[in-house]
Amino acid sequence: MKIGIVGGGPAGMFSALEASKHHKYVTIIDRNPFLGRKLSASGAGRGNLTNLHVSPQSYSALERFSYSEIVQKHDYAFLTRYFKDMGITTYHTDDGWTYPISNSARNLSLFLEELIQEKNIEILRNVFVKEINFSDDQFQISLDNGQVMPFDRLVISTGGQAHLQLNASDEILAQIEKLGHQILPAYPALSPLNTSKNQSKLLSGVRLDAETRIIANEKTVARTFGNIIFTEWGINGPGVMDLSHYIFKNPGQNKIKINFYNENNRQIIDELLLKFQESAFQLETLLLAVFPKKLIQQCMLNAHMDSNVCMNQLRPEQTQNLLASLSIEESILGTRGFEFCQLSTGAVASSEINPLTLESKRVPNLYFAGEVLDVLGPCGGYNLHWAFVSGIVAGSSIGSS
Ligand SMILES: Cc1cc2nc3c(=O)[nH]c(=O)nc-3n(C[C@H](O)[C@H](O)[C@H](O)COP(=O)(O)OP(=O)(O)OC[C@H]3O[C@@H](n4cnc5c(N)ncnc54)[C@H](O)[C@@H]3O)c2cc1C
């Protein structure tokens, strides 16, 4: 029996490794010169592979997240043990973000490729799958070099459109649609946001943890607490990236609100203001105990407050005004697009996929894994977790079929 894996990212590599436990002829086809090209760039080159806090609730989808049982069963403990059994040791930071101890995603890709070769899995590099046909229980795969290859089982693990400069491609989606699957729209997700910068003009370079909301028609539609970075063009960092896919639900009407005074620091700031309320301490200097100087200056400017005001000169309503001004609301002009995002939404709808085996309900012996499925995880290792474990599920489902 011949097994074909289209796409040699983390999902394809893990599908191939699992399938090879039961089948002799497994072939990975990828358009890149080496496997795991996007994986090699992940986590700023360190490879944020999974997260201590992974659970089914971590995930969403453009339509609906249907793979809770897979994530429940293949959790953090499962995946880190799986890596360990392969010879890859990981560690996690205080917030659960998990990396290989080499701190190198490229090293990990090289290691996995060697492992794959050792299992005698065939790798076809620098070739692009143009067409997929299915008849008489066989898949015929047409490559851009003119070759046509037959397979009995097929895994499609072609990823998404994020970072097209890494040879990402969604051209295969037309073929999947032709096979009878519904394709959901692709929008940039986990993307920095371009904003109007009317209130945050001076903040370029400021980085801090804050509460961030997306507001549409005066209502909060999504909210996070996380690290954000102000830039020349708008706002970057996990705190906004985790929200970027919400702006397509209400195009053109979205605002971003960032609360610097929030449930994580409210008590600290209230105590500080109380402790120094009778003193001649300058307010601006006092707030340096909590915030970067640029941020305090911008917020005082927004509140029309004198930068030299001392604590013992502050009237209660001025204090209230200042606390209300420790936030910024701006219009969202758009995401930074596929070039700068880390994920794309949509692709293969889950309604036509068996949620336990990842086999197509439309075409027998066709499987999917990774980002090509309608799954959205936040920043922090959740998307690679999905790619690895969905690869394991698709590959082992083939093994038992
Ligand atoms: C810059 C960046 C940093 C990221 N950092 C993190 C992180 O730290 N942690 C995290 O969890 N997630 C991260 N992500 C997301 C994560 O990398 C992806 O979710 C993950 O790589 C998806 O794995 P995959 O195997 O499904 O697809 P991919 O890794 O995209 O692999 C798919 C492969 O298929 C190939 N392919 C596509 N079409 C064809 C075709 N027709 N013929 C042949 N080959 C084809 C592609 O070229 C690619 O090599 C990051 C993404 C980016 C862009």
How would you describe this protein?
By secondary structure, this protein is an alpha+beta fold. The protein contains twelve helices and 21 strands. The strands form six sheets. Strands 13-16-15-14-17-18 form a six-stranded antiparallel β-barrel. It has a five-stranded parallel β-sheet with strand order 6-2-1-10-21, with helices on one face. Strands 3-5-4 form a three-stranded antiparallel β-sheet. The chain is elongated, with a radius of gyration of 24 Å. It starts with a strand and ends with a helix. The model has no long low-confidence stretch (mean pLDDT 95). Flavin-adenine dinucleotide (FAD) binds next to α1, α2 and α12.
Considering the chains and any ligands shown, give keywords for the structure.
401 residues, six-stranded antiparallel beta barrel, five-stranded parallel beta sheet, elongated, binds flavin-adenine dinucleotide
Concise structural overview:
The protein is of the alpha+beta class and 401 residues long. The protein contains 12 helices and 21 strands. Helix 1 (10-19) runs parallel beside helix 5 and helix 1 packs parallel to helix 12 (382-399).
